[in-house]
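Page 37, continued from 36.
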Protein backbone atom coordinates (compact mmCIF):
# COMPACT_ATOMS: atom_id res chain seq x y z
CA UNK A 1 0.00 0.00 0.00
CA UNK A 2 2.81 2.41 0.87
CA UNK A 3 4.44 1.37 -2.36
CA UNK A 4 1.26 2.21 -4.30
CA UNK A 5 0.99 5.57 -2.54
CA UNK A 6 4.66 6.31 -3.29
CA UNK A 7 4.17 5.32 -6.93
CA UNK A 8 1.02 7.39 -7.19
CA UNK A 9 2.82 10.43 -5.72
CA UNK A 10 5.71 9.92 -8.14
CA UNK A 11 3.23 9.70 -11.03
CA UNK A 12 1.57 12.93 -9.90
CA UNK A 13 4.95 14.69 -9.62
CA UNK A 14 5.99 13.48 -13.06
CA UNK A 15 2.65 14.53 -14.52
CA UNK A 16 2.98 17.96 -12.90
CA UNK A 17 6.55 18.33 -14.21
CA UNK A 18 5.38 17.32 -17.69
CA UNK A 19 2.61 19.96 -17.56
CA UNK A 20 5.05 22.64 -16.39
CA UNK A 21 7.55 21.64 -19.08
CA UNK A 22 4.84 21.71 -21.76
CA UNK A 23 3.62 25.11 -20.54
CA UNK A 24 7.15 26.53 -20.58
CA UNK A 25 7.80 25.11 -24.04
CA UNK A 26 4.63 26.68 -25.42
CA UNK A 27 5.52 30.03 -23.84
CA UNK A 28 9.03 29.74 -25.30
CA UNK A 29 7.60 29.08 -28.78
CA UNK A 30 5.35 32.12 -28.46
CA UNK A 31 8.31 34.27 -27.41
CA UNK A 32 10.46 32.92 -30.23
CA UNK A 33 7.65 33.87 -32.62
CA UNK A 34 7.53 37.39 -31.18
CA UNK A 35 11.30 37.69 -31.43
CA UNK A 36 11.11 36.52 -35.04
CA UNK A 37 8.49 39.17 -35.77
CA UNK A 38 10.62 41.85 -34.14
CA UNK A 39 13.66 40.68 -36.12
CA UNK A 40 11.72 40.84 -39.39
CA UNK A 41 10.45 44.32 -38.49
CA UNK A 42 14.01 45.35 -37.68
CA UNK A 43 15.20 44.02 -41.05
CA UNK A 44 12.44 45.97 -42.79
CA UNK A 45 13.45 49.14 -40.97
CA UNK A 46 17.11 48.52 -41.86
CA UNK A 47 16.24 48.12 -45.54
CA UNK A 48 14.13 51.29 -45.45
CA UNK A 49 16.91 53.14 -43.68
CA UNK A 50 19.44 52.01 -46.30
CA UNK A 51 17.13 53.21 -49.07
CA UNK A 52 16.69 56.57 -47.36
CA UNK A 53 20.46 56.85 -46.87
CA UNK A 54 20.99 56.18 -50.59
CA UNK A 55 18.38 58.81 -51.45
CA UNK A 56 20.09 61.24 -49.11
CA UNK A 57 23.46 60.55 -50.74
CA UNK A 58 21.92 61.12 -54.18
CA UNK A 59 20.40 64.41 -53.03
CA UNK A 60 23.70 65.50 -51.53
CA UNK A 61 25.45 64.64 -54.79
CA UNK A 62 22.85 66.60 -56.77
CA UNK A 63 23.21 69.51 -54.35
CA UNK A 64 26.98 69.54 -54.90
CA UNK A 65 26.46 69.55 -58.66
CA UNK A 66 24.00 72.42 -58.34
CA UNK A 67 26.44 74.36 -56.19
CA UNK A 68 29.12 73.83 -58.82
CA UNK A 69 26.75 75.06 -61.54
CA UNK A 70 25.75 77.99 -59.36
CA UNK A 71 29.37 78.96 -58.71
CA UNK A 72 30.13 78.67 -62.42
CA UNK A 73 27.15 80.87 -63.25
CA UNK A 74 28.25 83.44 -60.67
CA UNK A 75 31.76 83.48 -62.10
CA UNK A 76 30.34 83.91 -65.62
CA UNK A 77 28.19 86.77 -64.39
CA UNK A 78 31.19 88.46 -62.76
CA UNK A 79 33.19 88.05 -65.94
CA UNK A 80 30.38 89.51 -68.02
CA UNK A 81 30.01 92.45 -65.64
CA UNK A 82 33.73 93.11 -65.88
CA UNK A 83 33.54 92.98 -69.65
CA UNK A 84 30.57 95.31 -69.57
CA UNK A 85 32.32 97.80 -67.32
CA UNK A 86 35.41 97.64 -69.54
CA UNK A 87 33.30 98.29 -72.62
CA UNK A 88 31.60 101.25 -70.90
CA UNK A 89 34.98 102.76 -70.13
CA UNK A 90 35.73 103.09 -73.77
CA UNK A 91 34.67 106.54 -74.81
CA UNK A 92 34.11 105.61 -78.39
CA UNK A 93 31.36 103.29 -79.32
CA UNK A 94 31.18 101.96 -82.78
CA UNK A 95 28.18 100.52 -84.53
CA UNK A 96 29.57 97.05 -83.83
CA UNK A 97 29.94 97.70 -80.09
CA UNK A 98 26.23 98.46 -79.55
CA UNK A 99 25.01 94.96 -80.53
CA UNK A 100 27.71 93.48 -78.28
CA UNK A 101 26.39 95.48 -75.34
CA UNK A 102 22.82 94.39 -76.10
CA UNK A 103 23.99 90.81 -76.38
CA UNK A 104 25.85 91.16 -73.10
CA UNK A 105 22.80 92.46 -71.27
CA UNK A 106 20.71 89.63 -72.75
CA UNK A 107 23.33 87.13 -71.61
CA UNK A 108 23.31 88.71 -68.17
CA UNK A 109 19.53 88.39 -68.02
CA UNK A 110 19.72 84.80 -69.14
CA UNK A 111 22.39 83.99 -66.56
CA UNK A 112 20.39 85.76 -63.89
CA UNK A 113 17.30 83.68 -64.69
CA UNK A 114 19.43 80.52 -64.68
CA UNK A 115 20.87 81.59 -61.36
CA UNK A 116 17.39 82.05 -59.91
CA UNK A 117 16.26 78.63 -61.14
CA UNK A 118 19.38 77.04 -59.66
CA UNK A 119 18.71 78.81 -56.36
CA UNK A 120 15.15 77.45 -56.37
CA UNK A 121 16.49 73.95 -57.04
CA UNK A 122 19.01 74.32 -54.21
CA UNK A 123 16.25 75.44 -51.84
CA UNK A 124 14.07 72.52 -52.92
CA UNK A 125 16.92 70.04 -52.42
CA UNK A 126 17.75 71.57 -49.05
CA UNK A 127 14.14 71.08 -48.03
CA UNK A 128 14.15 67.47 -49.25
CA UNK A 129 17.46 66.93 -47.49
CA UNK A 130 15.98 68.16 -44.21
CA UNK A 131 12.94 65.92 -44.70
CA UNK A 132 15.17 62.93 -45.36
CA UNK A 133 17.34 63.69 -42.35
CA UNK A 134 14.21 63.84 -40.20
CA UNK A 135 12.95 60.57 -41.71
CA UNK A 136 16.31 58.87 -41.12
CA UNK A 137 16.30 60.14 -37.52
CA UNK A 138 12.81 58.69 -37.01
CA UNK A 139 13.89 55.34 -38.42
CA UNK A 140 16.97 55.30 -36.20
CA UNK A 141 14.81 56.09 -33.18
CA UNK A 142 12.40 53.28 -34.10
CA UNK A 143 15.29 50.90 -34.62
CA UNK A 144 16.86 51.69 -31.26
CA UNK A 145 13.46 51.42 -29.56
CA UNK A 146 12.88 48.02 -31.17
CA UNK A 147 16.32 46.86 -30.07
CA UNK A 148 15.53 47.95 -26.54
CA UNK A 149 12.18 46.14 -26.66
CA UNK A 150 13.69 42.93 -28.00
CA UNK A 151 16.45 43.03 -25.37
CA UNK A 152 13.85 43.67 -22.66
CA UNK A 153 11.71 40.78 -23.97
CA UNK A 154 14.72 38.45 -24.05
CA UNK A 155 15.69 39.48 -20.52
CA UNK A 156 12.14 38.87 -19.24
CA UNK A 157 12.06 35.38 -20.70
CA UNK A 158 15.55 34.62 -19.56
CA UNK A 159 14.62 35.59 -16.00
CA UNK A 160 11.44 33.49 -16.17
CA UNK A 161 13.37 30.41 -17.26
CA UNK A 162 15.23 30.37 -13.97
CA UNK A 163 12.05 29.78 -12.02
Amino acid sequence: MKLNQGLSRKDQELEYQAQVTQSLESKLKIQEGLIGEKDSELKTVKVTLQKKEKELEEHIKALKEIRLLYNTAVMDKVTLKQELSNSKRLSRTTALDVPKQNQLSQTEKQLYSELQSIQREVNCLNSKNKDLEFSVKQHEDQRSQQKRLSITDKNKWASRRHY
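The chain is about 95% helix and 0% strand. Flag for discussion at group meeting. The helical segments are 2-89, 97-161.
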